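Posted in: Protein Modeling Q&A

I'm a second-year student putting together a small comparison for a lab meeting, and my supervisor asked me to include a predicted structure for Transposon-transfer assisting family protein. I've never done this before, so apologies if this is the wrong subforum. The sequence is pasted below exactly as I got it from our records. If anyone can share the structure token output, I'd also love a short note on what stands out.
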Amino acid sequence: MNFDHEELLLMMLYNTGTRQGLVRELRLMQCYLMPDETALRELSEQVIEKLNRLTDAEFAGLEFPMN
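Accepted answer (user: helix_wrangler)
Welcome! Here is the predicted structure, written out as tokens:
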């Protein structure tokens, strides 16, 4: 699964260490978005969809950007 730089940064910010935990945190973050924050909502939905297609082993092998 290929994640772009924006997706990886979002994942890094909300990463709990597990794929399921990250999905849960992204869903929680979405609850606090304002109606006009459509770009962040769309990005987070895109990331969640991709995460749901990953296995836990694939997630464990992901490398997140350092800067």
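A couple of things worth pointing out for your meeting: Helices lie at 5-14, 19-31, 38-53, 56-60. The two ends are 21 Å apart (CA to CA).
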